[in-house]
TrEMBL record, chains A, B:
It is an enzyme of class 3 (hydrolase). Its EC number is 3.5.4.19. GO terms for cellular component: cytoplasm. Binds 1 Mg(2+) ion per subunit. InterPro entries: PRA-CH, PRib_AMP_CycHydrolase_dom, PRib_AMP_CycHydrolase_sf. The lineage of its organism: Archaea, Methanobacteriati, Methanobacteriota, Stenosarchaea group, Halobacteria. Belongs to the PRA-CH family. Its cofactor is Mg(2+); Zn(2+). GO terms for molecular function: magnesium ion binding; phosphoribosyl-AMP cyclohydrolase activity; phosphoribosyl-ATP diphosphatase activity; zinc ion binding. The gene is hisI. It is found in: Cytoplasm. HAMAP family: HisI. Homodimer. It comes from Natronomonas aquatica. This is Phosphoribosyl-AMP cyclohydrolase.
Amino acid sequence: MMSVDLAFGENELLPAIAQDAETGEVLMLAYVTEEAIERSRETGEAHYYSRSGEELWHKGGSSGHVQRIEEIRVDCDGDAILYLVDQEGGACHTGYESCFYRTIGGETVGEKVFDPDAVYE
Amino acid sequence: MMSVDLAFGENELLPAIAQDAETGEVLMLAYVTEEAIERSRETGEAHYYSRSGEELWHKGGSSGHVQRIEEIRVDCDGDAILYLVDQEGGACHTGYESCFYRTIGGETVGEKVFDPDAVYE
């Protein structure tokens, strides 16, 4: 199904950036397997590989905060993926729209869009 | 100098996304060490770690296509970095503004902004 050669590393993972297709906000960085990319293309919703759970991860499968895929891009070396998505709710488990809600100096700059206690039991 | 704890892995690297601070375009994904982040903060220009060259990499140091740092963000788990930058020239060695200039289906969607033969000898 893929047309661009992907350079999966020894661990068969590639980093994948999710970006809000409309606002341009970078939402999160996670990892994908070839299977995760194929499932994203087939279902139209972002899939990743959970390194902690060691399994295919359908983002938002339990929280409802799915990411509808608008386009998938590949970088020049084929070793990174960019998901352009329409994010339902927020991307971050903390309730922020983006996982990148802090500066490196510790200042909160992101927007909180949901109450994690109400979403995750 | 850092305020947010970073979760460097066994290889002491973290993935770092560079995003154009003005247009929101995701420019590239590379890797950083703690030293690379510190040099970025000290100099105001993006530094990475070159995995192929196994050395600190001042992006644009030879091509002139530097990335002026406007802000550095950290994700929720402290295991990914976002550089918000003002990109001189283009980010990609192929001459495209962004390394993510192709869809996974192989369609070119990015904009070419310089001639790599004129920049890299």
